[in-house]
Design a protein that fits this description.
heterodimer; A: about 110 residues; mainly beta; six-stranded mixed β-sheet; about 0% helix; globular; B: about 110 residues; four-stranded antiparallel β-sheet; about 50% strand
Chain lengths: ~110, ~110
């Protein structure tokens, strides 16, 4: 089993729709959780950290369910510019300096 | 502006050659990292360094080597022992730990 698993997609979504991604992680001791965005052939960029109580940043909402060991990302009122690959990232239990990366979910927003 | 610079953007390696990828940061970050990304896979950690003159192996260090002689610089050498080096290589830095990651724009290495 992979340490961080994501549906690879692609998710094809019309502009203005709401889309949700889930991610599961295997290590119950993980403490830090993130969503990164990666455009085609570019470097990843931090979208948002995920906090236990859930957090929102504009059209983006992240949730953490520790009991079920999954993280979710909700994008409301999707824009063409949201088209990218979304990477779920969790800290490694071995080191405070290591992150474990999911393979990403590809999102395509269609006009 | 502060940031991380990776060079070159594209690199072609012949079989049996060693090549060195450059990574320089002016963010005054203590920690630096090298990742490899293959199509359809998550980033995998090659090496990381928490402080000058010290570095640790990541999950896929075989066939790679690094040095950290200066805080600003963390070059990665892909040796001939790395049998499948074609990939996208990303350098990152952070103030400390897993927070505040900043990535360079990456180097695409291809074996010809």
């Amino acid at each position: 089993r992979k340490e961080v698993e994501q549906d690879p997609g692609p998710f094809n979504v019309p502009e203005g729709a709401t889309v949700a991604f889930n991610c599961t992680y295997s290590n119950s001791a993980s403490q830090s959780f993130f969503w990164y965005r990666q455009d085609c052939r570019k470097e990843p960029k931090l979208l948002m950290s995920v906090y236990s109580s859930g957090n929102e940043d504009g059209r983006f909402t992240a949730q953490l369910n520790r009991a079920s060991q999954y993280i979710s990302l909700l994008i409301r009122d999707s824009k063409l510019s949201d088209s990218a690959t979304y990477l779920c990232v969790v800290n490694s239990h071995d080191s405070n300096y290591q992150l474990i990366w999911g393979a990403g979910t590809k999102l395509i927003i269609k006009p | 502006d502060g940031g991380i610079t990776q060079s070159p953007k594209y690199l072609f390696r012949k079989e049996g050659q060693n090549v060195t990828l450059s990574c320089e940061q002016n963010l005054n970050h203590d920690a630096m990292y090298w990742y490899r990304q293959d199509p359809g896979q998550g980033l995998r950690l090659i090496y990381y360094s928490q402080i000058v003159n010290d570095f640790q192996k990541g999950d896929i260090a075989e066939g790679y080597s690094v040095s950290r002689e200066k805080k600003e610089s963390f070059p990665l050498t892909v040796t001939s022992a790395q049998k499948n080096p074609t990939a996208f290589y990303l350098c990152a830095s952070s103030v400390t730990g897993v927070y505040g990651y900043t990535f360079g724009s990456g180097t695409r290495l291809t074996v010809v």
